[in-house]
Amino acid sequence: xxxxxxxxxxxxxxxxxxxxxxxxxxxxxxxxxxxxxxxxxxxxxxxxxxxxxxxxxxxxxxxxxxxxxxxxxxxxxxxxxxxxxxxxxxxxxxxxxxxxxxxxxxxxxxxxxxxxxxxxxxxxxxxxxxxxxxxxxxxxxxxxxxxxxxxxxxxxxxxxxxxxxxxxxxxxxxxxxxxxxxxxxxxxxxxxxxxxxxxxxxxxxxxxxxxxxxxxxxxxxxxxxxxxxxxxxxxxxxxxx
Length: 241
What we know:
Blueprint: E1 3-8, E2 13-19, E3 22-29, H1 34-40, E4 49-54, H2 60-67, E5 72-76, H3 82-86, H4 95-107, E6 113-118, E7 121-127, E8 133-140, H5 142-152, H6 172-192, E9 199-203, H7 207-211, E10 219-220, H8 224-240
Parallel strand pairs: 1-4, 4-5, 6-9, 9-10
Antiparallel strand pairs: 1-2, 2-3, 6-7, 7-8
Helix pairs in contact: 4-8, 5-6
């Protein structure tokens, strides 16, 4: 596969080799040595295009280092918003959200989409059937909510996402787990009612967990962000050639 795509998120880094929209094996890294992780992926093969999407700004020093590892380098961060403008997306969008929107546009062409990403944050973004971006919201993700309850209410325990929990809590612990899980369910169901005719796409680490709990017909595309970045990489390669 010719291109390498890297998504540096809030808590983890995901990467994959790609050929057009086809993804290879997905690599995941959680730690502080992000530069070393990325370089480890290019030791045996140099990509034609390396796309690095990041929630923080990539330093000039790192960019120069990555340039030596590929044919062409494309940095997508808050300092590089040209592609957002080209795609008709607002410059305040993070590139992981933008990539999800672009992938949904491609997969469900001619359909309005409601894209829900269950990660460190919970993001919901909407497009119409022409692919026009209608806006979106950000709130705390599932695991982040559990951490916040413990951090800001010291008397309450740090719990994790349960395999199952009642809609209404019937014990001390389930009052917390139900509050988080049911709260997110009610939140999502409310959002989906705003554009009821839209295709609904779930992505992110907790996508399958919540997909099993919702009655609305949905699509789960776990690697939607990487697919969108793969599209950007392919288009960039074709335009540069």
